[in-house]
Amino acid sequence: MTAHALDFSIALSNNERTRPIIEGRHSPQGIRFLPTVVHPSEMFWRQLKFAEFDVSEMSISSLFIAMSKGDTRFVGLPIYTARMFFHTRIMVRRDSGIDKPEDLKGKRIGVPEYQQTSAIWSRGILQHEWGVHARDIDWHMERNPDKSHGGSTGFKAPEGVNITQIPLSTNIGEMLLKGELDGALLYLNEPNLVDRSTADISEVCRPLFPDPVAESTRYYNKTGVYPINHAMVIKRDLHEKYPWAAVNIYHAFMSAKAEVERTAEKTLKDYVACGLVEPAAGRMMKADPKSYGLRNSRKVIETISQFVHEQGLTDRRVGVDELFAPATLDL
């Protein structure tokens, strides 16, 4: 780090991939990060509404939506701090009669925010794998416009989709416990400024997919898609002033990723050696399904762009090359 390093504020969630950055073990050349650790639900709202941070994680769906509406305040960086097969987190009441994805049709399903990336991935997979369209479900959304991603990007319910705003007097968790909802596309009950649910719903609800690992493996083997939820962004004015910063930040996150995966790979090899994990898991690690950059993830980014547009949240399909810093497109 030089004496003339630039100070950049950065917002990150606390997970294994971001921790080496938060703790200062990896920094971009020429930049000193000033980190704020914050829950993603709150982070995205604060960044979309107030643009508080120079660099931050960002809901990739909200980035597509904002870009489609002419909001170009942020430039994407192909650094993916959260990936998950989100449809495997669908929860249903045990007495709802929902035993398979097709049974969601006509049911009352809660969602923290209709446009959040995890919800878009889940609806897209439900549509393409099982023929369950968004218009087939009675949606109940917890977040209100004043504290939501959609409130900052001008969200309106897509044509043909029924979305009921959950009143401030209750939330998804309470409605599930009372039987006023049949399930939840995603249940968030970690404390933050945006999400209101706090209840333990485990007594009345169960996962729609009883074996999430098996379903994740099935979907990945079929499609080659490992869903991306969060990417990093940098403010456009900073990117234009310091165009070298994008690649330097990318390299810092790559170094942090390598640190995490050295430990993970050693642990995995130990597990394979003693028979606790199948050798196939070791082969998947070598394939790096959680890679950064666009060369190996373009299909995934194009898929979420397709889902966002299919679900009526953008009036055009935003191109991948519009979203990310030009210097990162070949990484």
Textual characterization of the structure:
There is one protein chain. The chain is of the alpha/beta class and 331 residues long. It has two domains: 6-84 and 227-328, D-Maltodextrin-Binding Protein, domain 2 (3-Layer(aba) Sandwich); 86-223, Periplasmic binding protein-like II (D-Maltodextrin-Binding Protein, domain 2). Helix content is 37%, strand content 17%. The protein starts with 5 loop residues before the first strand and ends in an 8-residue tail after the last helix. The model has no long low-confidence stretch (mean pLDDT 92).
Which helices and strands, and how do they pair?
Blueprint: E1 6-12, H1 19-22, E2 31-37, H2 40-50, E3 55-59, H3 60-68, E4 74-83, E5 91-93, E6 108-111, H4 117-130, E7 138-141, H5 149-153, E8 162-165, H6 172-178, E9 183-184, E10 205-207, H7 212-223, E11 228-235, H8 236-241, H9 245-273, H10 279-287, H11 298-310, H12 320-323
Parallel strand pairs: 1-2, 1-3, 6-7, 6-9, 7-8
Antiparallel strand pairs: 3-11, 4-11, 5-9, 5-10
* Number of domains as seen in the coordinates: 2
- Strand proportion: 15-25%
Shape by Cα distribution: globular
Low-confidence stretches: none
Class from helix and strand fractions: alpha/beta
Please give the number of β-strands.
11
Give the SSE string.
EHEHEHEEEHEHEHEEHEHHHHH
According to CATH, what is the class of the largest domain?
Alpha Beta
Fraction of residues in helices? Answer: 25-40%
Number of separate helices: 12
Beginning-to-end CA distance, first to last residue: 24 Å
Q: What is the CATH third-level topology name of the largest domain?
A: D-Maltodextrin-Binding Protein, domain 2
Strand order of the largest sheet: 8-7-6-9-5-10
Largest sheet: 6 strands, mixed
CATH superfamily of the largest domain: Periplasmic binding protein-like II
The Rg value, from CA coordinates, equals 20 Å
Overall pLDDT, averaged? 92
